[in-house]
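Write out this protein's structure.
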Amino acid sequence: MNKTVLTYGTFDMFHIGHLRLLKRLKSLGDRLIVAVSTDEFNEIKGKKTIIPYEQRAEIVESIRYVDMVIPENSWEQKVTDIKKYNVDIFAMGHDWEGKFDELKEYCEVVYLPRTEGISTTALKEQLKQISKINIDDINKAFEILQRIKRDFE
């Protein structure tokens, strides 16, 4: 019997954790459908993405473990998607543990561990720190140049 697996995610700043999760998800069944959150839905969730939806969807769609990409437009669409695509397994990362248990009425619900030491949130924080350091360095250099300029006036 063919098993269809469904997952949802933003997949911003695609990294090794995303790839490993998709690989594990595909190992649960024969067909993996990935719903990628649209930019509009991410705004509703209070998330700011760096990479636009169309590019994120294209990246995910190009992964060999993924059979189909669909847009995620709302929280409510999960039951509709499960029925529409005859989903056997709904799977998410373990940080969502228990949040989708009501879907057990329609299919098996699985929460998989994430790859330790990497997350999009952590990457964005690192980028903030790097850019903050650079801005601070630029401001210091500007102050030094202002002093040098005053010395020569």
